[in-house]
C-alpha cells in the first residue's frame, strides 16, 4: 500500500508541475480571457489517459505500477477531468448512458454550486 501511494504521489506531483507549465506556456504565447491553459490541460489530459488506458488494457497491464504512476498519478495531477472523461466513456460503453448523463449533469451542477457556495461563505 505504501509503495502504491508513493507511486501515485510522485506521478501526481509531476502531473501538477506539467499542468502549471502548460498554463504558463499557453498564457505566454496565447494571452486571452478564455481559460485556454486549463482547457488545454483538460483536453490533453483526456487524450493522454485515453492512450494510457488503451495501452494498458491492450497489453493486460491493468494492475501495474505504470498505470498507478501515469494514469492515476500523472493524469490525476495534470487534470481530474481526464478521469471524469474516462469514467463516462466507460459508462457509455457498458450501456449505462442514463447513469453517464446523470453523472455529467450532477458533476457540473454540484461542482459549480460548490464553488459558488465556497465563494459565498468567504464574503
TrEMBL record:
What highest taxon heads this organism's lineage?
A: Bacteria
Q: Which Pfam families match?
A: CRCB
The record's listing under InterPro entries reads: FluC
Q: Which GO molecular function terms does the record list?
A: fluoride channel activity; metal ion binding
What catalytic reaction does the record list? fluoride(in) = fluoride(out)
Protein's job: Fluoride-specific ion channel. Important for reducing fluoride concentration in the cell, thus reducing its toxicity.
Membership in a protein family: Belongs to the fluoride channel Fluc/FEX (TC 1.A.43) family.
Protein name, UniProt field: Fluoride-specific ion channel FluC
